[in-house]
Amino acid sequence: MTARILVVDDIPANVKLLEARLTAEYYEVVTAANGFEALDACDKNQVDIVLLDIMMPGMDGFEVCERLKADPKTCHIPIVMVTALDAPEDRVRGLEAGADDFLTKPVNDMQLMTRVKSLVRLKSLTDELRLRAATTRDIGIEEMLQRSMRDSAGKARLLIVEEREQAFRRLATLLDHVADCDHVSDPQQALFVAAEGGYECVVVSSRAGGADPLRLCSQLRSLDRTRFVPIVLLAEPGEDERIARGLELGVNDYLVRPIDGNELAARIKTQVRRKKYHDELRSSVTQSIEMAVTDGLTGLHNRRYLDTHLRTLFERAQRRGRPLSLLIADIDRFKSINDTYGHDGGDDVLREFSRRLRRNVRGLDLACRYGGEEFVLVMPETDPAVAGMVAERIRAEIESTPFAIQAAAKAISVTASFGVATMAAAPDNPERLLKRADTALYEAKTGGRNRVVAKAA
Predict the structure, then answer these.
(1) 6 has which bridge partners?
(2) Which listed residue, of 60, 187, 279, 412, carries a Cα 20 to 30 Å from 353's Cα?
(3) Residue 399, helix vs strand vs coil
């Protein structure tokens, strides 16, 4: 997944070094020589991450960070401070200003790239939530986002997974002013406790008594109830590879022992604040679009939402030079299902089809009921080959397991046909993309049904 990264430093050699490293990994890099240029770049460009020096003339990195985080248009952009300053008080000041992490000069390549990749994934999720909120035209969203970035009253609920009771008590004491802490020593038990506890953050120690702490992190990310709960890893010195792997698995932040209490508290507050930010975005989206743009039968988005949001996704993909694919699915011989089992039986099939569609897509994909027995899936960041594989996977799952008809107390075989198309170079547009997918679907239906046809641009 690519991204546009802003590198801010008043020393040209530092800029060139970071630019070379990031460009080698196929990131797009823009640069700024001071704080004022950085603010202007964020205002005029679609920036995904800011790598920000602290010691700069005129406006230091702390002030730049505070200004970006105070602006609703830029408050969601992850900021990594890249600096020679390495004292705990400097890191705490940066975190309190809104920074997401620190990298110390000279920058370690592995730390740089793993942190950038982790924050790119975070930014992608945030962008998707903001786009969907904007699509609903919620006029109060900017005020809500500003409010959610401020510290909320009351302590956070925190789960600490630590083998030793004494170590837990020390951590709980360090966090007493910001969080109410619960303790679990067994990583396997911690998964169930986290799923049932409604925690706002989970701290996982690498001291797991022989167990793999990253296994717990992976399980937390795969479970619906804990998928969006921030995870902070407490690592030992020399565990760089474990930290890098943890960030790839979805760990949000880490600290290396010995732990500074003020920095730990600041990082926990940052994670909790970000979680509340995302929770409010999801809540805003859910509440404002549920009735207007959701299909009441299947729970998927309806065509009204597709017509608006497809254009937004299409224009973003064009702007970033990234692929965008779309498939149209049609349930084969659906009229005969309605004729045989009535509309209630047809509704059972539509609901189950929607459930299977959801199981096979990512969170950033857009699944819609297009009308009747037709469904549309929009897949950002997806090239034609991958889109074809996704369509084939869904087709196989539809065919493999019979659909239950409740009123008839029986299960019936159902198949579906799929048309796939991918965004082409200009002058392509959403209407042409849909038309190509619809033409491919027609070929799949006339060619024998229960198949996938991809339409070249």
Answers:
(1) 30, 50
(2) 279
(3) helix
The catalytic residue among 142, 315, 373, 374 is: 373
Distance CA 175, CA 418 (A): 53
94: helix, strand or coil? helix
Q: What is d(CA 281, CA 274) in angstroms, rounded to the nearest whole number?
A: 11
Active-site residue flag, 374: no
Helix and strand element counts for the chain (H, E): 15, 17
Beta strands at 374-380 and 324-331: parallel, antiparallel or unpaired: antiparallel
Beta-bridge partner residues of 103: 82
Q: What token pair was written down for 65?
A: 């960070």
Helix H or strand E encompassing 453:
strand 452-455
DSSP string, 331-384: ETTHHHHHHHHHHHHHHHHHHHHHHHHHHTS-TTSEEEEEETTEEEEEEET--H
Strand positions, DSSP E, 162-247:
179-184, 201-205, 231-235
Amino acid code (one letter) for 176:
D
Q: CA Rg, the chain, in Å? A: 24
- Strands of the sheet containing 366-371, edge to edge, are 366-371, 374-380, 324-331, 416-422, 452-455
CA distance 322 to 266: 36
Q: Which residues are paired to 330 by β-bridges?
A: 374, 417
Residues forming a β-bridge with 420: 327, 454
Dihedral pair phi/psi, residue 298, rounded to 5°: -100, -20
- Measured on CA atoms in the order 39, 41, 42, 44, is the torsion positive or negative? positive
Classified as helix, coil or strand, 51 is strand
Q: State both tokens at 93.
A: 């000041």
The whole-angstrom separation of Cα 94 and Cα 102 is 8
Instruction: Tell me the per-residue pLDDT of 171-220, one tens digit each, with 9 for 90 and over.
Output: 999 999 999 999 999 988 999 999 999 999 999 999 876 788 999 999 99
Digit-coded pLDDT (tens) for 9-60 = 999 999 999 999 999 988 999 999 999 999 999 998 889 999 999 999 889 9
Q: How far apart are CA 256 and CA 275, in angstroms?
A: 23
Which residue, among 67, 66, 82, 95, has the nearest Cα to 22 in the 3D structure? 82
pTM above threshold 0.90: no
